[in-house]
Amino acid sequence: MDKILKKSDYYYDLPEELIAQDPLEDRASSRLMLLDKETGACEHRHFYELPEFLRAGDCLVLNDTRVMPARLYGTKKDTGAVVEVLLLKRLKDSSWEVLVKPGKKAREGAVLDFGGMMTGTVEEILEEGNRRIRFEFDGIFEEILDKLGEMPLPPYIHHKLKDRDRYQTVYAREEGSAAAPTAGLHFTKELLSEIEGMGVNIVYVTLHVGLGTFRPVKEENILDHHMHTEYCRVDKQAADTINRVKAEGGRIICVGTTSVRTLESMTGDDGIVRAGFKDTDIFIYPGYNFRAVDALITNFHLPESTLLMLVSAMAGRENILNAYNEAVREHYRFFSFGDAMFIQ
Prior knowledge:
Helix content: 10-25%
Strand order of the largest sheet: 2-1-17-16-14-3-12-13-15
Number of helices: 6
CATH class of the largest domain: Alpha Beta
């Protein structure tokens, strides 16, 4: 099998103590590794220095999705057993696709009570064990969720989040994600204002992050991996700005893999970004020909993950693995609350 298609060729050894458990007090004080995608050369800086590496006429693309407090704890009406429910995707009316733990307590027909404010009935068992649950409540679902729900931090974060806004970007506005687009967590409003003042275009797209992004790749041949769909949208203003910047020779710099997946899903073979929305299951791995994106600001990703494969498509697998091994040696902080990389 070709080296780029083997899951095991995207493995690197990460000491557990390098997995960031808490966000830094100052968002922009994270470290920033600069990676030259052509040569593989690395430079170590800080995120607040990012403006030094941007140019007037560039376009920064940010994902404005907002994380829902999507983790709920319900009790089975008949037995009182506790069931954890993670909202993944709104289906229709008051039905959601959810992840449940433990699954054996959420068979079809099971009724769950959520703090006396809402009930949920398991209507169907979906692929890979997800459930469709129909919720019944009085009032507004989002307000009830705000009272009952917890932020759905990834399983490798064991500390409790003191301030739930620290798992939101400062520009989050379109509610619908089950996880944060974490590359954007490093930006402050002041830093964005400084970047805009330099003549860099800033546009917003939306991709609601589902857990499919983080599902482990189980098959050794990565082509056998099934990507789940996620809703994404590009409005006309963003599409027009991106297309103009490209025509004028500016760089399209995505913040986060979700922005990359959105733009590449909405761009034709002619390199033109189309406004609109869709459910995307795009899977980007080495050999992929980028149509819209020139550079990427991203965090450090899990070994053997689809996100590591995406960044390898942009910078080359060997360049990425060499950079990750250097980040380990230099004690960078990894994953959602960790440090950042600028691939250019």
